[in-house]
Design brief:
Elements (H helix, E strand, L loop, with lengths): L2 E6 L7 H12 L10 E6 L7 H10 L4 E5 L3 H9 L5 E5 L19 E5 L6 H11 L5 E6 L6 H14 L3 E6 L6 H11 L3 E4 L4 H4 L1 H10 L4 E3 L2 H5 L4 E5 L1 H16 L15 E6 H6 L6 H6 L2 E3 L1
Parallel strand pairs: 1-2, 1-3, 3-4, 4-5, 6-7, 6-8, 8-9, 9-10, 11-12
Antiparallel strand pairs: 10-11
């Protein structure tokens, strides 16, 4: 029975739907966990330092394929640990810029996967928030100054806010300890809402960010659904469910003999808008019926 190594940067909490999608992708290729394939799960618990030993353990076990999910970090660590075991990543960033693959169409090497391209959605998130807070004049943006995709995302949002005649205030936080100052800066700027930049760092400090948005009663749009589940207001992102299904499909195809280098990186086809009504009430924000109507998920 082949063994799949499943390496994730977070915890297993709240992953039921994503794992179901992953297994659906496997089953589409004739593989069912516990019947004709086994899966070894490794969770880094949002501690990046744990990824290296976890990846090394999977390599020592000589798993058939490694699925590396929720950011490029697990895949980069796995890629450094092995050049022979196939790796299928699931990330929100650009895998070419991250150094995972040579190109989207021709990945080369032992790595391929699926990207949600969350960094490219900052302009769409701005549009969603302008529907929610139409009288905004100044927009806040929270970024990690050391992030690989930060410069591109900031430029995209600067261009979009300028086109709307708005002012953009960029606040930077490269660690949990810098968040309070970043939020103080945003509030002092008079920003009507925040667009969170996409960066793996913000996964590690998600709870603190969510708490600060509620504490300051400032509407904030996130780039991942999990933040809304934990109390954030709203998120707009490519579907995690669809992305995990794509990863499962590729793992199954590799188990059947296909090579990662022959499988182009999959890109998003479905996007999800998630709203937390309890948080909207807590910060005193009325959600327009038009936005409620198009939401894919409303958390009460």
């Amino acid at each position: 029975m082949p063994v799949i190594g499943f390496l994730d940067r977070g915890t297993s909490a709240g992953m039921e739907a994503n794992l179901k999608a992953f297994r659906q992708g496997l089953e589409a290729n004739g593989f069912t966990e516990g019947r004709n394939v086994a899966i070894e799960y490794r969770w880094a618990d949002n501690q990046s330092s744990r990824l290296l030993p976890l990846a090394a353990d999977l390599v020592l076990r000589n798993v058939a394929v490694i699925a590396a999910t929720r950011s490029s970090a697990p895949a980069l660590v796995a890629k450094a640990a092995t050049s022979t075991i196939p790796i299928v990543f699931q990330t929100g960033s650009d895998p070419v810029q991250d150094g995972l693959v040579a190109s989207l169409n021709r990945p080369a090497g032992n790595v391929t996967g699926a990207t949600r391209l969350t960094y490219a959605l900052v302009q769409k998130r701005l549009g969603v928030m302008l529907d929610l807070v139409p009288k905004a004049a100044t927009i806040g943006m929270l970024v990690n100054p050391n992030g690989i995709q930060t410069a591109f995302q900031t430029q995209q949002l600067q261009e979009a806010t300028r086109a709307h005649g708005l002012t953009l205030h960029v606040a930077r936080a490269s660690s949990d300890g810098e968040l309070d100052a970043a939020f103080t800066s945003i509030m002092q700027s008079g920003a009507a809402f925040i667009v969170q930049g996409s960066d793996p760092l913000f996964l590690d400090i998600r709870k603190h960010i969510v708490a600060l948005t509620v504490q300051h009663r400032i509407p904030t749009i996130f780039w991942e659904r999990e933040a809304v589940v934990e109390g954030g207001l709203i998120s707009y992102d490519a579907s995690f469910f669809d992305s995990f299904r794509q990863v499962g499909d590729y793992v199954g195809r590799i188990l059947k003999g296909e090579k990662p280098s022959d499988l182009p990186v999959q890109q998003p086809t479905k996007f999800d808008l998630t709203l937390n009504m309890k948080t909207a009430k807590a910060i005193g924000l009325a959600i327009p019926p038009t936005l409620l109507a198009i939401a894919d998920e409303v958390i009460d």
